[in-house]
Specification:
- The N and C termini lie close together (about 5 Å).
- α2 runs antiparallel to α6.
- With about 425 residues, the protein is α+β, with helices and mostly antiparallel strands.
- Helix content is about 30%, strand content about 25%.
- The radius of gyration is 26 Å and the shape is elongated.
- It has two domains: about 250 residues, 3-Layer(bba) Sandwich (FAD/NAD(P)-binding domain); about 150 residues, Helicase, Ruva Protein, domain 3, CATH 1.10.8.
- The chain has 14 helices and 19 strands.
Length: about 425
């Protein structure tokens, strides 16, 4: 509809996609960005390489989002992985698929994605207004009519207010993770102010803090090919196999981050949470016992701490000695059956109590957000306010690492931008 005025709030992945789609379909489109440049968070995603999406099949892709994944099915049916790849190819940014199905720009530079998107929205006629934080949505008789922003300095020394009339408004303000990029949760307040329910936000894909001094002593140690179980309230809640990392405050890494949201939720409920690390997942109890007996027989003259060099990384040896309560200088041939049993049990169940988690500043994504039950999954339109749409991380949808979250942002932005013009 030519002449229809669409205002998009937020210049991240979802906002840029939404604005470009709306303008391409003939709308007079204004993109409001609070920072000096759009795409600040996009520039640092995937460690600066920008993991755009994942080539995994749709059912598994949706499953990565947990219980709210089904909300995204309609958006993914309209614009999914191959559509996104073709979109960027058309903008002159070829992509490559790597281990785990992760898709990156072939250049390995997230900046190429941002530059292509900004160039595209400019070519489509989008008016980009930076340093323009949206303050509130203007609603009359159940319909959105505009956005109020604060911009520049007024004569009185404060912020000058400016109103942008609109026939449709798309809120794509992102989450609350990486606040330095401008993601400070503004969209949640705007949604609540017009009657929307916001599921409590909390950090997800976030490093975990553990009790005691074990993690600080192991700082920098990366364990590969280990199995980790997360227990909360006496029940096993999650498990994963792969790599984890010890830090000065606790643990992080590829198998820790995906289970962190469940940890955060359990801690919020006041539950006791611990991680059980199986350092030898390839060996069951019987095979591990046989391995220990063989080592003790072959190297029976060596001291216990020396025997452990064949079993553990160097940094982990003092921790093992302490937690198994076996003297480090004890000769291998003198180790009792009871001590061997303690060692075997510890190797299969090295426990760390989780006491907390890092802040939004270190979280990759935000869990929680605008309740998806109040948003039409086919259009991203609000079910409560006519002319209002939501896209991206401001919605209560989040997934594992691997490109899933960015695809959701681009897909919901694509749908919202096109729907806002209808």
């Amino acid at each position: 509809m030519a002449g229809r005025r669409v205002v998009v709030v937020g210049g991240g992945a979802a906002g840029l996609m939404a604005a470009g789609q709306a303008a391409q379909r003939g709308a007079e489109t204004l993109l409001l960005e609070k920072m000096s440049h759009p795409g600040r968070k996009l520039r640092i995603t995937g460690k600066g390489r920008c993991n755009l999406t994942n080539v995994t099949a749709l059912p598994e892709f949706i499953a990565r989002f947990g219980r709210n994944g089904r909300f995204l099915r309609q958006a993914f049916m309209q614009f999914f992985t191959m559509d996104l790849v073709a979109f960027f190819e058309g903008l002159g940014v070829p992509t490559v698929a790597e281990r785990g199905g992760r898709v990156f720009p072939a250049s390995g530079q997230a900046q190429d994605i941002v530059d292509a998107l900004v160039r595209w929205v400019n070519e489509r006629g989008v008016r980009l207004q930076t340093r323009s934080p949206a303050e509130r949505l203007l609603v009359e008789r159940g319909r959105v009519v505009g956005v109020q922003v604060s911009r520049g300095s007024s004569d009185a020394g404060g912020r000058a207010r400016q109103v942008h009339p609109a026939d449709a408004v798309i809120v794509a303000t992102g989450g609350a993770s990486y606040p330095a990029t401008g993601a400070t949760g503004d969209g949640y307040l705007m949604a609540e102010s017009v009657g929307h329910t916001v599921v409590p936000i909390r950090p997800a894909l976030v490093p975990l803090e553990t009790a005691g001094d074990i993690a600080p002593r192991l700082q920098g140690l990366s364990l590969r090919n280990v199995a980790v179980q997360m227990w909360a309230g006496g029940k096993r809640k999650a498990e994963a196999f792969g790599e984890m990392l010890f830090t000065h405050f606790g643990v992080s890494g590829p198998i820790i981050l995906p289970m962190s949201k469940q940890v955060v939720d359990a801690l919020r409920l006041g539950q006791l949470v611990f991680l059980s690390i199986d350092l030898k997942p390839a060996l069951d109890e019987r095979k591990l016992n046989a391995r220990l007996l063989r080592d003790l027989d072959t190297y029976g003259r060596r001291q216990f701490r020396s025997l452990l060099k064949g079993l553990l990384p160097r940094k982990l040896i003092p921790v093992c000695v302490e937690l198994t309560n076996i003297r480090p200088d004890k000769i291998g041939g003198q180790i009792t059956a009871q001590e061997r049993k303690r060692l075997r049990a510890w190797l299969k169940d090295f426990r760390l109590e989780v006491t907390g988690h890092r802040s939004f500043a270190e979280a990759l994504v935000t869990a929680g957000g605008v309740d998806t039950r109040e948003v039409d999954p086919r259009t991203m339109a609000s079910r409560l306010v006519e002319g209002l749409y939501f896209a991206g991380e401001v919605l209560d949808v989040d997934a594992d690492t691997g490109g899933y979250n960015l695809q959701a942002a681009f897909s919901t932005g694509w749908v919202a931008g096109r729907s806002a013009v209808r």
